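Lecture notes, unit on protein representations.

Consider one protein chain, 131 amino acids long.
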Amino acid sequence: KCGGYTAAHTFIPGTPLRIGNCMRDNYISKTPPFRGCNISNRTNEVIQFYSDVGITEPHCFYSSVHDGGLDHIARHYPNATILMMPRKFEDWYESVRNWGDGRLLTMWESNGCGGIATCTKRKNDDDDDDD
């Protein structure tokens, strides 16, 4: 529970199944994003709060960055509240690079997430817009 709500972080509670895999499969099949991944196997309660629902293996999928991912959620759950926590890219990249002695960044790079994780902002990018 989180603040009295049934919550899930990364995995469907009571299973080894990642929420992100379920969401990706539902995105591809155009079915509601949480169909099949919205019941806690520990308590048999409907999950009301999800966090960290992306996946890196076997293929990268993050609803917040994949084209149409957030629209897919909003279309099926029009009254849902989606919280996006902004973070400076440099801070986020440093966190990903340090997580698990670099394992997370390695997984991202080898499973199609590399375009997100490896693009680094040069100091003078804003000055390069001569076009």
